[in-house]
Design a protein that fits this description.
The protein is α/β, with parallel strands linked by helices. Strands 1-10-7-6-5-4-3-2 form an 8-stranded parallel β-sheet. An 8-stranded parallel β-sheet has the order 15-14-13-22-21-20-17-16. The protein has a 5-stranded parallel β-sheet with strand order 24-23-25-26-27, with helices on both faces. Helix 31 links the parallel strand 26 and strand 27. The radius of gyration is 30 Å and the shape is globular. About 1% of the residues have low confidence.
Length: 837
């Protein structure tokens, strides 16, 4: 069989179209679902000929690649149908069916691609653990390899952390079974312009670049026209093939049935437009596309040859939301140092107190101060470092927009951190203190998880103090790191510095040795980086004096070629804000310009008379009025500062006005930001948590109305297992003072009615992702009407639209019906219901 790489030199490859909508069109006998309606993967064993029929129709239409019916075959997805133990079997049979049909066609090479979707849980939001997700993908990957799959396709991805788990699972399965199938990755970009978790295509590319994947692309979410700007952006930065298999336009709900508006000819014409971008090599269909769409696409791509990849991406690290070049202009890359249990007593005490809001606030304050990334070091005596790392990194992963630098001497703690970082991290650090074995272990972690790596100038004899020793240790570590497949641009070397404030003769030239080592290193390895914990130079000196010495030292190190600096950004002074006298005294000490250590005594004496020019306050924030401060802190998700502010704000503004006029108004603005794609989901949830804490704080001061808490019963309707949207509604409403009774997924109308009566609820909320779920909602309303229930009903879900609610739902029910396109419209609906009580 010819390789994908070889074939793409001569022609574009076509993926097949939709599986789910084709299954729906078959109108299968209910018995084939075996009490697991909606589990398409079960059909691989209960109705294999039906699945083969779909595969065959796409192959007849000319598809080169057949996606297997295994999109949701992972055990944690099948568990929702009580089929968890059949994950291997259903994957194996799904791949086997596709292979058998491909072998019927001999006119050209046909490929079987094992489709692996994201499931219904996002690891970055904590709904599933990395290890559980990895195990599920690994089991499916082994089954697919045993069934002789040609390709792995990780598709419809919504969370980079999920993609990492899948890639690692597949890679490990391939190594165990000694095979080499290529991995294709395809993400879903929502109409907001990002993946559901908030990652845009450029950041996704930066996160995935270090991994051994064959292609990156986009599927689902929209039609090919809406995907065009994202494919264009990807073509500029991606250096491998690009894929696109789009929907037949944005889905419409017509009377409870899905309708995709884009016909085969229009679809093919728009897809072909994407071939003008470099590296676009795979075209195909997703939801709503049929064999007719693929037939037209096959005709359109005849004789088309993909343009070669020309994309270039500067070395960078990322959060879930943005990337930061490893080469900042102007340098250096500023790493915030305050989330460090060893270096910061305040942070250590927050960990001891398990004050996670305070822990978060430390990183938030560094973000506001202008840091480019955050160092996270939680290890100290008497604590479980792995558990502290897990909790802290999980918190920072979604709630801090900056890249993270997990910092530990423990490979186990570092790996725990990497399993909870969705972006591309930089590890701090590896060294040779314990010999080469541990160094290799940490390098392996960097390679496995796609991270950059800091290497410290330490070997078996200790920390390198002279320029000559530093360079010798660096050369050794550099050569060892490259054996792991890490590139020069992935590596950052810490030249280490020692305090010039101790008075010990050995360290009079500590700054000089470090600066000279940076200069020589930069000449030797121009693509690698250098880093310093800058404040080490002033250890033991007065706090205010340290700010000046650290700032001057940083300036000279940057001039020597330093690219990274671990600093307290807030307390770093630009050189133009340092007087000539202060500068001279600092440079005399750094460059040992006075005999017998006299420069240190002059420095101490001088700065005894000088007060810091830095202020710990944020003047811009302080000048805001109280209501605006409350709104600002809610948007920033800053619970700690919010509660401090409310303690005296309640004396200036009535607590009732704070809740009804200020906080609720701010939440509406947050909803608008979310709806327009200007605020990512995790930050919305963070603001919602602050809202709840604020309301809880103010409750004792609110007027006692005697009115019961407004209650909503919410669930995903019968036959639907999707709950991300429903759970978001739960969080938003709960954190805004409403009582939410969440009855889970696949809820029968009897479940809704029972919970409604048991909890004396004020409203019922029905959610569902599938189009068939909208028909269930209509049936549920009819049943409520038959039983004489008039409670307001909230309807929401991706397949629902306002027209369907108006034309098919509202006439079926005499109670109030609210169409809620997102969680914030659900909040608006509940506020209206509450006012009418």
């Amino acid at each position: 069989m010819n390789s994908l790489q070889e074939i793409l030199k001569h022609r574009v490859l076509v993926l097949d179209g939709a599986m789910g909508t084709q299954i729906q069109n078959l109108n299968l006998d209910p018995s084939v679902w075996q009490n697991a309606a909606g589990c398409n993967e079960l059909l691989n064993v209960s109705a294999p000929e039906a699945i083969k029929k779909i595969h065959r129709s796409y192959l007849k239409a000319g598809a080169d690649i057949i996606k297997t019916n295994t999109f949701g075959a992972m055990d944690w997805v099948l568990d929702e149908y009580e089929l968890k133990d059949r994950a291997y079997e259903l994957t194996y049979e799904g791949v086997k069916l596709a292979r058998e049909v491909c072998e019927e066609f001999t006119d050209k090479t046909r490929f079987t691609a094992t489709s692996l979707g994201p499931g219904t849980k996002l690891p970055s939001l904590g709904s599933i653990g990395f290890d559980e997700m990895y195990k599920g993908y690994h089991n499916c990957a082994k089954a697919a390899i045993e069934a002789k799959t040609d390709i792995f396709l990780i598709e419809t991805a919504q969370d980079p952390l999920q993609i990492k788990a899948a890639i690692l699972a597949i890679d490990d399965a391939k190594k165990e079974l000694k095979t080499a199938q290529p991995i294709m990755v395809s993400v879903t970009i929502e109409t907001s312009g990002t993946m559901l978790i908030g990652t845009d295509i450029a950041t996704a590319a930066a996160i995935l670049k270090p991994f051994d994947i064959f292609s990156l692309g986009i599927n689902c979410g929209s039609g090919p026209d809406k995907a065009l700007p994202h494919i264009r952006a990807l073509s500029h930065i991606w250096d491998r093939p690009i894929s696109i298999h789009a929907n037949a336009g944005l889905p419409q709900n017509r009377g409870g049935y899905t309708f995709y508006p884009m016909g085969p000819e229009e679809f093919a014409k728009l897809q072909i437009e994407l071939l003008k971008f470099d590296a676009v090599s795979f075209l195909g269909g997703c939801c709503g596309t049929t064999p007719q769409h693929i037939l037209e696409l096959t005709k359109a791509v005849k004789d088309k040859v993909p343009l070669p990849p020309k994309g270039h991406l500067e070395p960078c690290i990322t959060s879930l939301y943005e990337s930061k070049s490893l080469r900042q202009n102007p340098p250096p890359f500023l790493i915030g140092e305050r989330s460090n249990a060893t270096g910061s007593k305040a942070f250590r005490e927050l960990l001891l107190a398990k004050d996670w809001d305070g822990v978060l606030n430390v990183a938030q304050s560094q973000t506001k101060s202008g840091a480019h990334g955050i160092d996270v070091s939680v290890g100290f005596a008497g604590r479980d470092e792995i558990e502290d790392m897990r909790k802290t990194i999980s918190l920072y992963n979604t709630k801090i927009p900056l890249p993270l630098m997990p910092d530990s001497t423990s490979p186990e703690a570092l790996e725990e951190a990497l399993k909870h970082i969705g972006g591309r991290a930089i590890i701090n650090s590896a060294n040779l203190e314990d010999g080469e074995e541990k160094f290799h272990k940490i390098c392996s972690l960097a390679k496995r998880y796609g991270a950059a790596l800091v290497c410290l100038c330490i070997d078996e004899s200790g920390m390198a103090k002279t320029k000559e020793k530093k360079i010798a240790v660096v050369k050794r570590m550099y050569d060892l790191a490259l054996t792991h497949g890490l590139s020069e641009s992935d590596l950052v070397f810490d030249m280490l510095t020692f305090t010039v404030g101790s008075g010990e003769r050995e360290y009079f030239t500590a700054a000089i040795e470090t600066i000279e080592a940076i200069k020589e290193f930069t000449a030797l390895y121009p693509k690698a980086g250098t880093i310093l914990g800058v404040s080490n130079i002033s250890f033991g000196l007065d706090k205010n004096a340290r700010e000046y010495l650290n700032s001057v030292f940083l300036h000279h190190c940057v001039e020597a070629g330093l690219t990274f600096a671990i600093v307290n950004v807030k307390n770093t002074l630009p050189l133009h804000k340092i007087s000539l006298d202060d500068l001279r005294v600092c440079e005399d000490l750094l460059f040992d310009k006075k005999p017998n250590g006299e420069a240190l005594f002059v420095f101490i004496s001088h700065f005894d008379k000088v007060k810091t020019q830095k202020s710990d306050t944020n003047d811009e924030f302080d000048n805001l009025d109280t209501a605006t401060k409350i709104k600002t802190l809610l948007k920033e998700g800053d619970k700690e500062r919010m509660l401090k502010l409310l303690s005296h704000a309640k004396d200036e503004i009535s607590p009732e006005a704070i809740v009804n006029d200020v906080l609720i108004s701010a939440m509406k603005e947050i909803g608008e930001l979310f709806g327009s794609g200007k605020m990512q989901l995790p930050f919305v949830l963070q603001s919602a948590e602050v809202m709840k804490a604020s309301v809880d704080f103010l409750k004792p001061y609110l007027p006692k109305t005697g009115k019961k808490e407004t209650t909503l019963v919410i669930g995903t309707v019968k036959g639907d297992v999707h709950d991300v949207g429903k759970n978001l509604v739960d969080i938003i409403l709960s954190n805004n003072g409403y009582n939410v009774v969440n009855i889970g997924i696949k809820a029968e109308i009897e479940d809704f009615i029972k919970a409604y009566h048991e909890h004396n609820a004020d409203a019922i909320g029905m959610s569902g992702l599938l189009v068939k779920s909208t028909a269930i909602m209509k049936e549920n309303l009819e049943e409520l009407e038959r039983q004489g229930i008039k409670a307001p009903v909230l309807l929401g879900g991706a397949a629902l639209n306002e027209n369907f609610v108006e034309e098919f739902c509202r006439p079926s029910y005499s109670g109030a019906v609210f169409y809620c396109k997102d969680a914030f419209e659900g909040l608006n609906a509940m506020q209206m219901i509450e006012k009418k009580q």
